[in-house]
Design a protein that fits this description.
The chain has 101 residues and is mainly alpha-helical. It has a single domain, classed as Histone Acetyltransferase, Chain A. Helix content is 51%, strand content 8%. The longest helix has 19 residues.
Length: 101
């Protein structure tokens, strides 16, 4: 989880909301991906949401999703291996095109 946060370049992450979204993404990748069913993933989201509300007065659905789906972060969309930026995917068509080739 911390590896993903350390990949964040401070030049591209200027707000609390951006870091929170990345934090939630990393939690979901590390813990949710290892769960065996939908109900367990929803329980995890509930725990994350609870901590967001208590400590940041934010909620998961509004601050940690992209266009109603789980937030996705990658470090290869720049297309330049020398300038890798760990960034949120906001254009899923661009991601799809990159992955398909």
């Amino acid at each position: 989880m911390f590896q993903g946060l350390y990949n964040a370049n401070p030049t591209y992450y200027e707000t609390k909301e951006q870091i929170i979204k990345l934090w939630a993404h990393e939690l979901m990748r590390v813990f949710s991906d290892r769960m065996i069913d939908y109900e367990d993933r929803e329980i995890l989201k509930g725990y994350i949401n609870e901590q967001l509300e208590v400590h940041f007065q934010m909620n998961y659905a509004e601050h940690c999703t992209t266009k109603g789906s789980e937030a996705v972060f990658v470090d290869f969309l720049t297309g330049d291996p020398e300038k890798r930026v760990y960034e949120e995917v906001t254009n899923f068509d661009k991601l799809r095109t990159y992955l398909i080739g």
